[in-house]
């Protein structure tokens, strides 16, 4: 049986554990999560262990990245289940702070990443990336890991984090890990648990539509046509609304540029559940 994984809940204990490893010459890879873990999260632990001697996973449902009408209260939480999965995946330490440890009374500072953080998700979820950038900055400064791993599933988030670590000179290597999918193509997500059986059957259409849009754009360079085709395909498949389906430059998330890597990104609603996904343009 896997050894019981220890959990620390304070920044002081986190620093003590990582500091002791550092003294022994052992480097740390950090994997920030909001819990309700699945194979996608565990693949990030695997990436961290390829790059570093010790893997530390953080589990914190960050209230600052949820809007007032979003799902903070009902976001799935299962610390014991997460702890078992992480132990089996070879995690060395779990950091699961209370909200008051991260944002003690009097806390005011925010980190925002204009432009990159204002488009796409930032447009539909105002304040979201300020919440993400703030908590990730704090986690990186708390742990001071050599490496931190983030999923391409949240592609814009990955770019925002790359930008902020460069801009703030945070000495960490940011590693992006490929999206782990169900057999039918649906990107794994903690929020997939919200889907009814009927919605779950429709959900893989999101990946199919963006993959086909990426192929069409690669073939003829016509972004508008590929985007319009994908949006109407999603509505026909049973999605209630499409926030965006768009071809973007993979680094700046602005308009695609000839000869540079591009990405198709989408967000769409199945009933009351909002799904996001993205794929590279081949
Ligand atoms: P979350 O707990 O949803 O905030 O995600 C924590 C980390 O796991 C983020 O870096 C996500 O991009 C990553 N992640 C979530 N789903 C997947 C997936 N299906 N494949 C790879 N990484 C993922």
Structural write-up:
The structure is a single chain. The protein has 282 residues and is α/β, with parallel strands linked by helices. Helix content is 39%, strand content 19%. It has helices at residues 11-23, 39-51, 79-88, 99-102, 121-124, 128-143, 155-167, 197-202, 205-220, 223-237, and strands at 7-8, 28-33, 54-59, 93-95, 147-151, 173-177, 241-249, 262-270, 273-280. The chain is globular. It starts with 6 loop residues before the first strand and ends with a strand. Adenosine monophosphate (AMP) binds at residues 33-34, 40-41, 43-44, 150-151, 153-154, 177, 179-180, 187-190.
Q: What best-fitting shape do the alpha-carbon axes yield?
A: globular
Instruction: Tell me, rounded to a whole number, the average pLDDT.
Output: 97
State the helicity in percent bands: 25-40%
State the total count of DSSP E strands: 9
Which stretches of 5+ consecutive residues score pLDDT under 50?
A: none
Task: Describe the structure in brief.
With 282 residues, the chain is α/β, with parallel strands linked by helices. The protein contains ten helices and nine strands.
List the helices and strands and how they pair.
Elements: E1 7-8, H1 11-23, E2 28-33, H2 39-51, E3 54-59, H3 79-88, E4 93-95, H4 99-102, H5 121-124, H6 128-143, E5 147-151, H7 155-167, E6 173-177, H8 197-202, H9 205-220, H10 223-237, E7 241-249, E8 262-270, E9 273-280
Parallel strand pairs: 1-4, 2-3, 2-5, 3-4, 5-6
Antiparallel strand pairs: 7-8, 8-9
Helix pairs in contact: 6-7, 9-10
Adenosine monophosphate binds at residues 33-34, 40-41, 43-44, 150-151, 153-154, 177, 179-180, 187-190.
């Amino acid at each position: 049986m896997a050894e019981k994984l220890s959990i620390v809940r304070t920044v002081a204990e986190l620093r003590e554990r990582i500091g002791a490893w550092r003294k022994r010459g052992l480097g740390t890879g950090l994997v920030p999560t909001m819990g309700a873990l699945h194979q996608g999260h565990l693949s990030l632990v695997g990436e961290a262990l390829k790059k570093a001697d010790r893997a530390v996973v953080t589990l914190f449902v960050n209230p600052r990245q949820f809007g007032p009408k979003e799902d903070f209260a009902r976001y799935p939480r299962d610390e014991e289940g997460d702890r078992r999965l992480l132990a089996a995946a070879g995690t060395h330490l779990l950091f699961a702070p209370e909200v008051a440890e991260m944002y003690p009374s009097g806390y005011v500072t925010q980190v925002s990443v204009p432009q990159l953080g204002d488009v796409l998700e930032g447009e539909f979820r105002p304040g979201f990336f300020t919440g993400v950038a703030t908590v990730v900055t704090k986690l990186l400064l708390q742990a001071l890991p050599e490496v931190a791993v983030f999923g391409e599933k949240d592609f814009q988030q990955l770019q925002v984090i790359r930008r902020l670590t460069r801009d703030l000179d945070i000495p960490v290597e940011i590693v992006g890990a490929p999206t782990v999918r169900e057999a039918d193509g649906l990107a794994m997500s903690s929020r997939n648990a919200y889907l009814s059986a009927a919605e779950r059957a429709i959900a893989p259409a999101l990946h199919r539509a963006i993959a086909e849009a990426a192929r069409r754009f690669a073939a003829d360079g016509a972004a508008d046509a590929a985007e319009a085709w994908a949006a109407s395909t999603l509505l026909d498949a049973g999605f209630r609304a499409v926030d965006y389906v768009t071809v973007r430059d993979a680094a700046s998330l602005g308009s695609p540029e000839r000869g540079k890597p591009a990405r198709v990104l989408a967000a769409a609603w199945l009933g009351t559940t909002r799904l996001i996904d993205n794929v590279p343009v081949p």
